[in-house]
Amino acid sequence: MLKGCAAMVLGLAAMSANANIYTATLSGAVEAPPNESPGTGTVTVDFDIATHTMTIDVTFSGLLGNTTAAHIHCCTAVPGTGTAGVATELPTFTGFPIGVTFGTYSHVFDTSLAATWNPNFVNTFGGGTIAGAETAFMAGLESGSAYLNLHTSFAGGGEIRGFLQPVPEPATFALLALGAPVVLLAARRRRGK
User: Fold this and answer.
1) pLDDT tens across 94-111, in order?
2) CB 83 within 8 A of CB 32
3) Disulfide-capable partner of 22 in 44, 154, 164, 187 (CB 3.0 to 4.6 Å)?
4) Is the pTM of this model over 0.70?
């Protein structure tokens, strides 16, 4: 029984190991330096290193300036603070709405393509390879040292941004739910001996 539960737990962990979801709330208060923009937004990034796909969904409104660029920066020295160079394509995401103060965006990127990445990020963090860039980017997302930034005519360095944070997957909750009875059973058996 214990071995069967352990195998199921490991199987669920393997299923969730490749695809990861990250979210952030965007605001001027999170910018470096912070600004008084009333703009807000949300972003969800679904990064699957096994299939080389990254889906980015952004919603934003209330900007003081018109959008000029949007991309993900990585990797800050301290998670959740500081600045970093652009990791994703330049000058902005393919098809991102430019010249607006509100909008939505959704795009699926092929992360095995060089065009998805800033060449400086590939060389600096990825050791000169796309596979290295994917691995470094995943590490930045996992550690909270990657952020999405919306640049505008009001704030060229960025009007609103948010640090991407991992979202626990249902499989993670399943692991916890399955693991608790296993631990309790093992503790009960130890007490009985």
Assistant:
1) 999 999 999 999 999 999
2) yes
3) 164
4) yes
